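Section 5: illustrative case.
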């Protein structure tokens, strides 16, 4: 059953800050009552009673604040707004025109509106055609074309009005050469807005509504009451969406330069009415990409009012923390990370929190929160809220919009229910069913239990700071799924290992998708699921290039930077959330590498675990020299007996059950543990499995997987 809002929830200005910096919290209460905000340190986020448990250290002495709460609106739906339209004079004849490609024609949406001084002109479309609604202080009139509109077809729609004669004309004309449909009406006392607030894809500036889902292009306001196209006219305003595509600005090429802003991250760099297919990159032919795809369920910045601020104490150690919010009817957590001071001191090791991945999966609605899932949540005292029931906070990059198009943006300026301690992704029959943020607490709890000093940095920090962020550290540890990366984060990690640093890649399906960011909107990431890869949706042809940076999207492998180049292994096979074990290979007993396996008996590694029941599972990576695995890489262990649900990823498969590498299709469903050293004195250890860190726990943090990682981390962290 869908719910509207959590009793209390919120988000922060950033995922991380340093001591001396200030977090700003944005909180909303369903009933608008009082709440408390307390600080906790997040050590463990697994509610499974057979695991390390939920370990939240009470730091109320650092923050314990009574707050007055208010309900803050969540305004879904993207649109453009222009604060002041062109000057024409209130009695001037005018025409409002726009090109429209509806992608959800079963729902009516406003495509163009202008409003001022109690007068409004709105033009909407649905499967039944275009409709013009004019309202003024003494009257109103509605005129419809009653002309059928098809999904994914382009039309010109317009409304012309003459205040002197009272004539109103609404029309639509398909751009494929079909006949125009035009309807007329006469309205007594007709008044029109002048220099009004203009909106595209919605109406009512005070509280935007009637959101349109589809593509819009070339809106204009013309002098005169146009009856047919083409027709001579004088331009009062004409917005060219092919201008400044990376920005959130819409540019008016008319004489008054009535520029505007986009709200809630609609999608640009999409093929428009004039796209020929001759160019696939919008940078080379901007007019082919003069459309914007608006969605009624887009969500960018929630734009809530700040609720409280908190200055990070100078003596607070780097680590994972959260604000624990409680009110009379519920609770929530706002997780964050504290980095070390810029001048140190620094721990020898840094954990790189995969915040881009957390953000990409934020509020992933899987449709799996059934009764059995809810029973486990209740029995374990797990995080009680699932995105399936709360669409109001926006969906993930793994979901689709109402019209079936993929969600290509994710914002962190909204509540992210999946990034919470104790959130269960799966009802895992063999383990805990954790992924991403809570799954990575398996590693954090292990580091704490072993007494290994570490700092935390995030993907966003790395993208902002580059390799200099990592210079103080001897080693960097990834989490279980560092899947989403920018060029700058990959460059930084490569420079770190090539310059003598050590990296332990402790997950699977890492360094896989390329995402884009814009310094003007650091809170958003963009993804184009271009050719290839395991995808829940695919980018449309011609729309493979990011709008934010103009770069080709999709897999890093398609960008000639396969994960093997950085980590030695790359995505090869996956299945359901279940795991198997590794078998040590002869190289593991080689004296050069035996230090890693000191204290480990036998050849079986990880035939247990809190993630799918095995250390090698769900999504697995293998070495491949043809894809960049460095010379001298040694394969220390390999998974065996893949579960029946596993399959080879599509980018490895050719026709006739052949593979790109020439190996048998079934042999590519494997995880490999590898090690290599760089020419600059660095080293990389990779486990090639998402479920690996779930096997750090066995009756406490003991067992061969824990021992292996302890040997690696202590060696990597040593001078």
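Designed sequence:
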């Amino acid at each position: 059953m869908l719910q509207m809002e959590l009793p209390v929830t919120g988000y922060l200005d950033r995922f991380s800050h340093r001591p001396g910096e200030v977090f700003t919290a944005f909180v909303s209460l369903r009933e608008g009552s009082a709440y408390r905000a307390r600080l906790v340190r997040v050590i463990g986020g697994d509610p499974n009673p057979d695991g390390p448990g939920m370990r939240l250290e009470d730091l109320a002495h650092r923050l314990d604040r009574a707050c007055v709460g208010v309900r803050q609106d969540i305004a879904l739906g993207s649109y453009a707004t222009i604060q002041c339209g062109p000057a024409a004079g209130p009695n001037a004849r005018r025409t409002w025109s726009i090109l429209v490609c509806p992608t959800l024609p079963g729902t009516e949406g406003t495509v163009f509106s202008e409003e001022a001084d109690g007068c409004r002109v709105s033009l909407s479309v649905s499967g039944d055609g275009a409709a013009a609604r004019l309202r003024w202080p003494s009257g109103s009139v509605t005129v419809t074309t009653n002309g059928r509109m098809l999904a994914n077809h382009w039309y010109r729609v317009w409304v012309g009005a003459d205040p002197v004669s009272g004539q109103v004309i609404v029309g639509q004309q398909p751009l494929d050469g079909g006949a125009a449909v035009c309807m007329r009406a006469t309205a007594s006392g007709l008044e029109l807005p002048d220099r009004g607030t203009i909106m595209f894809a919605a109406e009512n500036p005070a509280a935007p509504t009637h959101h349109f889902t589809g593509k819009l292009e070339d809106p204009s306001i013309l002098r005169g009451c146009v009856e047919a196209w083409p027709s001579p006219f004088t331009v009062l305003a004409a917005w060219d969406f092919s201008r400044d595509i990376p920005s959130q600005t819409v540019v008016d090429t008319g004489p008054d330069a009535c520029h505007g802003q986009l709200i809630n991250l609609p999608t640009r760099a999409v093929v428009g009415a004039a796209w020929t297919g001759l160019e696939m990159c919008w940078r080379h032919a901007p007019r082919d990409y003069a459309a914007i795809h608006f969605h009624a369920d887009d969500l960018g910045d929630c734009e809530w009012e700040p609720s409280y601020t908190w200055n990070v104490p100078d003596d607070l150690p780097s680590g994972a923390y959260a604000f624990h919010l409680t009110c009379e009817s519920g609770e929530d957590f706002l997780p964050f990370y504290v980095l070390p001071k810029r001048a140190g001191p620094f721990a020898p090791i840094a954990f790189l929190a995969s915040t881009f991945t957390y953000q990409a999966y934020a509020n992933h609605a899987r449709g799996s929160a059934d009764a059995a899932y809810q029973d486990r949540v209740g029995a374990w005292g797990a995080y009680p809220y699932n995105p399936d029931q709360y669409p109001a906070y926006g969906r993930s990059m793994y979901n689709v919009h109402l019209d079936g198009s993929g969600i290509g943006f994710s914002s962190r300026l909204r509540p992210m229910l999946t990034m919470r301690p104790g959130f269960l992704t799966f009802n895992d029959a063999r383990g805990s069913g954790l992924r991403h943020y809570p799954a990575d607490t398996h590693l954090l709890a292990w580091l704490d239990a072993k007494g290994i000093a570490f700092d935390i940095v995030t993907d966003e920090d790395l993208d902002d700071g580059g390799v200099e962020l990592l210079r103080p550290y001897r080693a960097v540890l990834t989490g279980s799924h560092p899947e989403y990366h920018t060029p700058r984060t990959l460059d930084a990690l490569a420079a770190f290992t090539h310059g003598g640093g050590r990296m332990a890649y402790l997950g699977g399906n890492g360094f896989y998708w390329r995402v884009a960011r814009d310094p003007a909107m650091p809170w958003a990431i963009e993804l184009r699921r271009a050719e290839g890869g395991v995808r829940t949706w695919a980018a449309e042809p011609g729309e493979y290039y990011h709008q934010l940076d103009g770069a080709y999207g999709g897999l890093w492998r398609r960008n000639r930077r396969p994960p093997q180049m950085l980590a030695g292994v790359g995505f090869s096979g996956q299945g359901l959330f279940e795991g198997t074990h590794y078998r040590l290979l002869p190289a593991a007993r080689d004296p050069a590498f035996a230090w890693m396996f000191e204290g480990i008996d036998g050849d079986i590694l990880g035939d247990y675990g809190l993630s799918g029941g095995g250390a090698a599972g769900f999504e697995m990576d293998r070495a491949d020299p043809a894809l960049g695995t460095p010379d001298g890489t040694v394969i220390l262990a390999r998974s065996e007996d893949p579960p029946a649900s596993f399959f080879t990823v599509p980018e490895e498969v050719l026709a006739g059950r052949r593979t790109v590498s020439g190996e048998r299709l079934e042999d590519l469903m494997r995880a490999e543990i590898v090690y290599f050293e760089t020419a600059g004195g660095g080293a990389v250890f990779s486990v090639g499995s998402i479920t690996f860190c779930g096997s750090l726990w066995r009756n406490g943090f003991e067992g061969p997987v824990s021992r292996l990682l302890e040997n690696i981390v202590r060696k990597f962290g040593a001078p």
